[in-house]
Design goal:
Elements (H helix, E strand, L loop, with lengths): L1 E2 L2 H14 L6 H22 L12 E6 L4 E6 L6 H8 L6 H8 L25 E9 L6 E6 L4 E7 L5 E8 L20 H11 L7 E10 L14 E9 L16 H12 L7 E7 L5 E7 L16 E5 L2 E7 L11 E6 L15 H24 L1 H21 L5 H4 L5 E3 L4 E3 L1 H6 L7 E6 L3 H6 L1 H8 L5 E3 L4 H8 L1 E8 L5 H12 L6 E10 L10 H13 L1 H11 L5 E4 L11 E6 L4 H9 L12 E6 L4 H12 L2 H18 L7 H11 L1
Parallel strand pairs: 2-8, 12-14, 17-18, 17-20, 21-23
Antiparallel strand pairs: 1-6, 2-3, 3-7, 4-5, 4-7, 5-6, 8-9, 10-11, 11-14, 12-13, 15-16, 15-18, 19-20, 22-23
Helix pairs in contact: 7-8, 8-13, 16-19
Amino acid sequence: MRKFKTESKKLLDLMINSIYTNKEIFLRELISNASDAVDKLNFKSLTDDSMQVDQDDLSIRVSFDRDARTITVSDNGIGMTADELEKNLGTIAHSGSQEFKTENAESQGDAVDIIGQFGVGFYSAFMVAKRVQVVSRAYGEDAANVWESDGLEGYTIEPGERAGHGTDVILTLRDNEPGKDGEPGENYDRYLSEWALKDLITRYSNYVRYPIQMMVTRSRQKPKPEDAGDDYQPEYEDYQELETINSMTPIWKKRASDVEQKDYNEFYKSTFHDFEDPARTISFHAEGALEYDALLFVPGRAPFDLYSKDYEKGLALYSSNVMIMEKCADLLPDYYNFVRGVVDSEDVSLNISRETLQHDRQLHAIARRIEKKITDDLCDMRDNDREAYEKFFENFGRGLKFGIYNTYGGKADELGDLLLFWSAKEQKMVTLREYAEAMPEGQKAVYYAAGDDRERLSKMPVVTGVLARGYDVLLCTQDVDEFTFQAMREYVARDMPKIYEDDAAREAAEKAQADGAEPETEDRHLELKNVATGDLDLASEDEKKEAEEATKEHSDLFDAMKEALGDKVEKVAVSSRLVGEGEAPACITTEGPLSLEMEKVLKRGPEGEAEGLPKTERVLELNAKHPVFTKLAAAQDAGDSEKIALYAGLLYDQALLVEGILPEDPVAFSQRVCELM
């Protein structure tokens, strides 16, 4: 027996017990090696006229023997001599495939596609096998040789027999291991079935370029005997048939023009276990410093667990048609976690187990390109298939909003124009861009209202007051909306028609355009303003003057109402939002960054009842033109402090109800109503 070198022994132990975390990939590694051997023969036949190889005969064969507990992977590739067995299998981490690729780097072109370049894939067999035999006959040689090892101390190389060129890798499986200490055992017998091996082949090696064949069991009806009577029942028999298990040609390698959408739909549904067709299909091939193929799908519906902690994002990563990772999370940003698909690249640097990726610039470059492709496709759907986009946004819009919030507004430029909100004025979903384009001249902010119900929001005094002035209000009904807007801080409407400061500048621009000049554009920075917080600065100069005069004239009234309400409000003031007799008598607004809706969202959270939770700075705004204000002023003039306290409490609780918030003391509210009745 030839001994493994000490360092090789350590590496073998490390690899079997540590590097590979998923035992079932052993078959993927052996098939990859077999594909490399066939590739080498195919390449040499293209460069050496003396080699006569029928490419149609090149294949890989997988078989099993349940009684002997063996699995065999055979190929009719280039094979190995005794020296090559010693060199490639006797020294762990030596890769014959890598050496071959390096030697032929200048001439190989697309004729050869070497998968196994890491030199340790073969040894993954010892994760499931207690003994491995490699019977190999090199092309052009008369004799075969047998390499054999138990993966512990060393190996032997002896003369052997094989009918033709190629290699057989024969695995004798380990004994089943019972569970202990509550941990499940290991059932190696599970690999000794036709179904299990077919499943591993289609899952990991479905797109290897050569046929992977197995003898499979089929059933057929026996011929009916000539003397059978009328009561004859059909009889069936099993028979063996050679079947090609893999599909060989990946759909993502084909040009999009050569694939019908129904084929993409079937691939998506069968691969990703969905019963609906995808909403969008994105297929592209990248060339240059990095070369890869990508096939991406936007689902037609949201997975039931999309927003659960158990949901795993990621794209299936292939290298040379062999699956490396089922879900590579690094290829997708969190806000596009719903996208499914495949990326296939020979250029991505893998570690020796092929199970995890090195975090390098190659991977980040692919991820950036994929992100841009998804964004561009969603923009195209938004602009050219609005009905489909609105359905998409209903399913996945929350994630896009959270993407802006979670990056503290860092992704606002990329994602902002993908957002949709309900327009109170237009009565339909609009983008921020469409809102900006419809703004009257002079509007400098995007106005929005946040709540849990669109109908209730549209009737709120703070909304109707803004609408009455001719400005639109976006009605936001998801809990993430206001947090998203606060993270964005502003919306930049790019390339909007330029607004000129005076008539002379406008006329000069119009003349220039008449002479053939391009229309001038500008980027407008629009603040995002909640209509229920802060000063919207919508009042005219006359309205501002009236409000100042009313504030001075009735300062005693406001002080009395503030005293009656105590720390429920920061102050009582004349409203610049409510200015008509037909509008509400009062409304609740807030100062500072926290709105009433955000306070409600925080209270619904896991720490909603915790001490120290931030609270809103509430302001009771009064409509100075409403008849109720006249009665309040009369009560103040009469010195009726009880009536002022009654009215203050009633107006405050009523304003809370309009906001969808129950009064702190519903009984007291009811008693105040009864007193007035």
